[in-house]
């Protein structure tokens, strides 16, 4: 694991105005630091941001750059409430995706990006997965579009029980060290 420096600065108002709060790791509830957040700047590293506390709700991937009005860019009604630092990783990538919950139905093992599980595997749904190696982003639509979910190594038995019942994940991509 390569840790390196990670830093994201949250601002109360659009275009980096108002009070700010700098975060260099995970933050489960930003409400204790600021009541609202309408812009942010990623100084270094990659972060996942969430519109609910405790890494729940809608999520979005931020890499280094400035996000002066992210809510209109992302179509969010609520501002960021928690964020998770994504550690830099250099190594192999491996994930098994399953058609059904609890690792049921068809299974495919992936080691690289897949812009459409329908095209590649004739799979119309993915309801659970096991991430063995690397950090991944899963997307609602093919070609890495729509809502997304950050997956780190672990077993994910039911996306529905995680609060993603209405969503399908149709494409997956590796979070690469070159993105940092």
From TrEMBL:
It comes from the Eukaryota. GO terms for molecular function: structural constituent of eye lens. SMART domains: XTALbg. GO terms for biological process: lens development in camera-type eye; visual perception. Residues 45-87, 134-176 form the Beta/gamma crystallin 'Greek key' domain. PROSITE patterns: CRYSTALLIN_BETA_GAMMA. InterPro entries: Beta/Gamma-Crystallin (IPR050252), Beta/gamma_crystallin (IPR001064), G_crystallin-like (IPR011024). Keywords: Eye lens protein, Repeat. Pfam families: Crystall. Crystallins are the dominant structural components of the vertebrate eye lens. Belongs to the beta/gamma-crystallin family. This is Gamma-crystallin M2-like.
């Amino acid at each position: 694991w390569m840790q390196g420096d990670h830093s994201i600065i949250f601002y109360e108002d659009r275009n980096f105005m108002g009070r700010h709060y700098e975060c260099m790791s995970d933050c489960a509830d930003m409400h204790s630091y600021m009541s609202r957040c309408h812009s942010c700047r990623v100084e270094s590293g990659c972060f996942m941001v969430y519109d609910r506390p405790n890494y729940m709700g809608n999520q979005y991937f931020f890499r280094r750059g400035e996000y002066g009005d992210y809510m209109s860019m992302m179509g969010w009604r609520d501002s960021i409430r928690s964020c998770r630092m994504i550690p830099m990783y250099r190594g192999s990538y491996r994930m098994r995706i399953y058609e059904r919950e609890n690792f049921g139905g068809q299974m495919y093992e992936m080691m690289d990006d897949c812009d459409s599980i329908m095209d590649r595997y004739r799979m119309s749904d993915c309801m659970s997965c096991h991430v063995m190696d690397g950090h991944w982003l899963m997307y609602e639509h093919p070609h890495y579009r729509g809502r997304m979910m950050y997956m780190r190594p672990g077993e994910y038995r039911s996306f529905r029980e995680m609060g993603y019942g209405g969503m399908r994940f149709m494409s997956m991509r590796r979070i690469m060290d070159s993105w940092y």
